[in-house]
Amino acid sequence: MNIVLASDDNFVQHCAVTITSILCNNSGVRLYLLTEGLSKYNEGQLQMLVSKLGGELKIVNIPKDFVNKLPMPKDINLSHISVATYYRLFIPELLPVSVDKCIYMDCDIVVRKSLSSLYEVDLSNYAIGAVYQNDSWALYSDVFGRLDIPQKYGYFNAGVLLINIDYWRKHDILSLMRNYLKNNFHLIVCHDQDVLNAVLYRETKILDCTWNMLSSYFTKSIFKHKEERFVEYRRQILSGVKDDPAIVHFVSRPKPWEPLCYNPYTDDYYKYLKLTPWKDFKRPIKKMGLIQRVLYFVKGPQLLKINRTV
Question: pTM for the whole thing?
């Protein structure tokens, strides 16, 4: 099983958590870590961690100027994202030609189960497999008009992708994305995720939400969406997927390492963190003033009841 991640020294702790969660629940994993440069210390720590957990780690160093001219919008809600987010677009070029399929994951993720069923999903005639994004930004903003995507196709989250690398190479998908970036540079808001949606919306197989449980899928807002494409996801939520998801994605902010993270699986981040060299990281204390408490609990996300499976 080939799994691709991207990180730098600023995100290495969270990358270690994602790696640990993968290897604690899966065997026979070869990890490819795309990076513009980790310190020798951090690279050594990750190699020892992966070796201890029975995996294999390949470091893929990216030239410093590889993506330095790509659009990086200044939205404060996206401030945790670095230029490394674009690396996934170049996976067919960066990985050995012998690799024809992979799972790509962001490093704000915890894996809680085997990924074999995800890896075995049939992607014949599809470029990628992905999960719909269901927050209000993706549903009700100008995203469809801005990217010229028919609304019936929806907008997927790129934090977990099952990638048919063979398909990308045969259809020269990378050239299509490069051309899109060149001609639509001014339209990009959500980085590579916008590019992937704009280029591949017809060639995307929609996956069950257990493979990328976004924080928004733990809120009651899922039941407000009337779009037909969310009917199946609502069925999955009601049938208990939220109680034992395979992959939890701490999308947007606050993250588990920041105060006020509302995701009900935040404890899982710290469970796996304790198995890494960064185990001494101190969990932030949730401190709020009176006004903050009122705003957070009155206007904040309304969570679904979670019956956690341990």
Answer: 0.87
